Amino acid sequence: MKKTQNLFFMIFGLLIVMFIIAVIAYVLKFVIDIFLQADVTVVAALVAASGTIMATAFTVVVGQMISKNREIEEAHRAFKTEMYSKFINFTIDYVFSQTREDMESISQQELEKYFIKLSKDFTLWASPEVIKAWSKFRSQAGDSDSSDTLSNIDNVYKAMRKDLGNSKSGLQNKALVKLYLNNSV
After folding, report:
1. What sections of the chain are H helices per DSSP?
2. Over the range 25-44, which residues count as b (16 or more CB within 10 Å of their CB) and which as e?
């Protein structure tokens, strides 16, 4: 029964496609016949008018698409900026909490909880470059020496800057990390 039904739908679909092709061919033949019988100046005016109409429609559609994409990017940018700022604040606070005695140290559990939440946010909102840099940082954070870890954090920062439309050109390795650490890194 299922095979018969599938065969029926396949034949029915082919008939519909053939009917649509026949209608298009008939309409094209009709339009061409009208153009062949019409005066050359009328045909030229019709072609120019239809070209203008199509160009206008194309311009409106493309303009709407660009406008819609810009609105989406602006909405995402605000969320990304907040998320990235929180990450930068967290990493700076974490580094200082590890090196200064007067600051309360962040526990391993708090660190893991924050990284899980941040990974969830990155999954939805971050650019592919940020996700790649973040994944590299996460995979090497426990295995690497502090210099590699700082390089990886710096790469995450640079990817975030690029995602927000800021240039990273001319920034040396660890340039962003050195903004808040001493120059010995």
Report:
1. 2-37, 40-99, 108-125, 128-140, 146-163
2. eeeeeeeeeeeeeeeeeeee
The CA–CA distances, whole Å, from 6 to 14, 16, 17, 51, 117 equal 12, 15, 16, 43, 48
Q: Could you identify the residue written with the tokens 């909490």? A: 97
pLDDT of residue 15: 95
CB atoms < 10 A from the CB of 145, how many? 9
The tokens of 2 are what? 């299922």
Residue 109's SS3 state is helix
AA letter at 84: Y
| The pair of three-digit structure tokens given for residue 91, joined into one six-digit string | 């990493």
pLDDT tens-digit readout, 158-184: 999 899 888 878 888 888 888 877 655
How many alpha carbons fall within 13 Å on the CB side of residue 66? 6
Encoded tokens for 1: 């029964």
Residue the block writes with tokens 């994944």: 135
CA dihedral 89, 91, 94, 100 (to 10 degrees): -80
